[in-house]
Write a structure and sequence with these properties.
307 residues, Rhopdopsin 7-helix transmembrane proteins, two-stranded antiparallel ribbon, 67% helix, transmembrane helix, membrane, Rhodopsin_dom_fungi
């Protein structure tokens, strides 16, 4: 039998997601600032995305304070508008954060792309994500008219109107499908990026694996899809909405963490004392004979060498 109060579960998943994202972004900043001594605009974007994700987490935590995770009959009536307002704001911030996470990953890939078709696929994927999620963000923000009717409807059901629930659920399913497809494309593309590089097999596998961590976020997106119906569940929305919120938080946290972990290879190499990723040319060592200059590694991608 399900617990009558799921707020501790929602609280724990939110704090865990915020912690994972915060730690990985902080490590990214350390690597970029103190190890590589470079902080590009995509790193600023990652920090901004983390801040916005923090605002999303604050909305969820405030919603918990107003009864999220509990049955509606167990919550004081005056708390309900506040809980709905936090839910409305959280839905909108979720979409914005999702867009920024995809942009952060795409910019990293564009920096290391070596072939025109790599960039074309990345730009096309990013364009679809941004366009559709912008439309979805508009629907999330203005699903009721006037906007405040979203959280005031329980006290004044005739004071406004909201979009048909089929539009809300349908657009959410479509957004989930687009985001999931984008995660897989941006996650599998790194394999193509390193496939023909003259790296040794171990280094090639590690580079592709680290860059492809974005696929992890798609798992949360897929798990989240069966709970989309909770968006339009009105009879006990505080209690029922927990699953959808939990997996939305997990999706954002894993996506943000993956985009930052992909920049931590210098830290992994220092901590683990791994190889430097020298290139192997048909079984020959990457250095010349006695008295000769070392043979420079040829990765075919200046961006990958820098990364």
């Amino acid at each position: 039998m399900a617990s009558e109060d799921r707020s501790p579960e929602l609280y724990a998943s939110t704090i865990f997601g915020l912690a994972i994202a915060t730690v990985t972004v902080a490590l990214r900043c350390y690597v970029r600032l103190f190890m590589l001594k470079v902080f590009s605009w995509e790193d600023y974007l990652a920090v901004i995305t983390m801040i916005i994700f923090g605002v999303y987490g604050a909305c969820v935590l405030m919603a918990i304070q107003y009864g999220a995770g509990r049955h509606i009959l167990d919550v004081p009536a005056e708390w309900l508008p506040h809980a709905l307002k936090m839910r409305w704001l959280g839905e909108w911030i979720y979409v914005v954060t999702s867009i920024l996470v995809k942009i952060t990953v795409a910019v990293l890939l564009l920096r290391i792309c070596s072939k025109p078709w790599h960039k074309s696929v990345t730009y096309a994927t990013l364009a679809v994500v941004v366009v559709w999620n912008t439309v979805y963000a508009f629907l999330a923000a203005f699903q009721c008219f006037p906007v405040q009717h979203f959280w005031e409807r329980l006290g004044d059901p005739n004071g406004g109107q909201c979009l048909n629930e089929d539009i809300i659920t349908g657009s959410t399913y479509a957004a989930a499908a687009v985001n999931c497809l984008a995660d897989w494309i941006l996650g599998l593309l790194p394999i193509a990026l390193v496939w023909n590089l003259e790296l040794n097999r171990r280094t090639k596998a590690s580079v592709a694996g680290i860059l492809a961590l974005g696929i992890i976020a798609s798992a949360a997106t897929i798990v989240r899809i069966p709970f989309v119906w909770q968006l339009t569940h009105d009879s006990d929305f505080l209690y029922v909405f927990v699953d959808f919120t939990t997996w939305s938080t997990t999706e954002l946290a894993m996506g943000l963490a993956a985009s930052s972990i992909a920049t931590l290879r210098p830290l992994f190499k220092r901590v683990l004392g791994g190889s430097s990723g020298n290139v192997s040319h048909k079984g020959r060592a990457p250095t010349g004979g006695p008295g000769q200059q070392p043979i420079a590694p040829r990765t075919g991608s200046p961006g990958l060498r820098a990364w």
